[in-house]
Amino acid sequence: xxxxxxxxxxxxxxxxxxxxxxxxxxxxxxxxxxxxxxxxxxxxxxxxxxxxxxxxxxxxxxxxxxxxxxxxxxxxxxxxxxxxxxxxxxxxxxxxxxxxxxxxxxxxxxxxxxxxxxxxxxxxxxxxxxxxxxxxxxxxxxxxxxxxxxxxxxxxxxxxxxxxxxxxxxxxxxxxxxxxxxxxxxxxxxxxxxxxxxxxxxxxxxxxxxxxxxxxxxxxxxxxxxxxxxxxxxxxxxxxxxxxxxxxxxxxxxxxxxxxxxxxxxxxxxxxxxxxxxxxxxxxxxxxxxxxxxxxxxxxxxxxxxxxxxxxxxxxxxxxxxxxxxxxxxxxxxxxxxxxxxxxxxxxxxxxxxxxxxxxxxxxxxxxxxxxxxxxxxxxxxxxxxxxxxxxxxxxxxxxxxxxxxxxxxxxxxxxxxxxxxxxxxxxxxxxxxxxxxxxxxxxxxxxxxxxxxxxxxxxxxxxxxxxxxxxxxxxxxxxx
Length: 481
What we know:
Elements: E1 14-16, E2 25-27, E3 37-40, H1 53-58, E4 63-66, E5 78-81, H2 85-96, E6 105-110, H3 115-128, E7 133-136, E8 140-143, E9 146-149, H4 157-169, E10 174-178, H5 181-185, E11 196-199, H6 207-210, H7 213-225, E12 232-236, E13 252-257, E14 264-272, E15 275-280, E16 283-287, H8 292-307, H9 312-319, E17 330-333, E18 339-343, H10 348-362, E19 368-372, H11 383-393, E20 396-399, H12 409-417, H13 422-426, E21 428-430, H14 434-444, E22 450-454, E23 461-464, E24 467-470, H15 473-480
Parallel strand pairs: 2-3, 3-4, 4-5, 6-10, 6-11, 7-10, 11-12, 12-13, 13-14, 18-22, 19-20, 19-22, 20-21
Antiparallel strand pairs: 1-5, 7-8, 8-9, 14-15, 15-16, 17-18, 23-24
Helix pairs in contact: 2-4, 3-8, 8-9, 10-11, 11-12, 14-15
């Protein structure tokens, strides 16, 4: 392609050289640069691409996109200065792959909890409605029925546009994607044309990256601020920041709720560990999901489908047949009569919601044993909070390893224990080995009890000293059975 053609949407502050040249590809990793590449020098959390400009040129880069032009420029290389290289990369990637998002009906879902469930159910729903659809999620990406492994909640701009282009080539009409706060802040979604956005909720998470809750909230809100007038923005009216998200949005505004008047109103009529009977916009529907948070997720799914022009009754019929997303309140029944629930809850609020739901269904007719840990090299401030939530809502809480990454597991557990008083500590056990912790919880469980294994959900690995080892909570629970 001609360099000029992929710079159509990029605001150039300064250009040195002729942009009417052929380019072989776009790269932001200097190690992948080959003869004819355009190198985009982006600033990351771990390194700054500007440090690798000379290396990229040595590898054959014919053009460099950067925020600061080096003092010594190469005569045979085009230099383009932009305000934000990551933003430019998004627009360039979109142009390189033929603006795939403009050829799809693309819906983005953002929030702390519920993103994966909502996008996955929308993907399943629209496939059952007869539409070719794509999915971009934490668990797995799909191009129609073709699975593509997911490495990030939201991929980098090049990988993202490549996946969207594959969806277009496969005849997809719709694409549903998780939009993480990191991807908004790092401009990975720059250049994408969304048809709608959904907000789930916002609670403490990723403070290690955003530093403050206010920055985290701004990143989520920025997604809605940039939605154009012809799109829709659907928000959770039950979250105190739900309407804040839409304050500066030009999109058509809609709400969903379990508690207040909304465009899409859902009420829980009955619930058990087998599912719920819901009233959704004055129509009853039985679903195989459990908990208020899932009723809220389904309300968002219903609202999104209706806003995309689907028939309400047909949508509700299919919702009644949808199944739980892997590792999201996934229920397993032991032969000896207790229930095990594997859930991805890894924030204090998510853990509170899951524990509250279980206790609401138990109503004192059974005990809750919770296995929970916290990830290493992440937000330390939530560790004591997670421990308190687990202990206060459970008969017994077993504190254990999650993904310790490069931290010592015992140090993480000490941070969790620091949030407990003497009485709370008496209700807890500390077992560093996660496998042993799960086995202990299952050994303690009697008929009618519930074992909650929280934190990792769908993950089939554990990261210890930076090395991934196979570990699957569901597998471990089934071994105990």
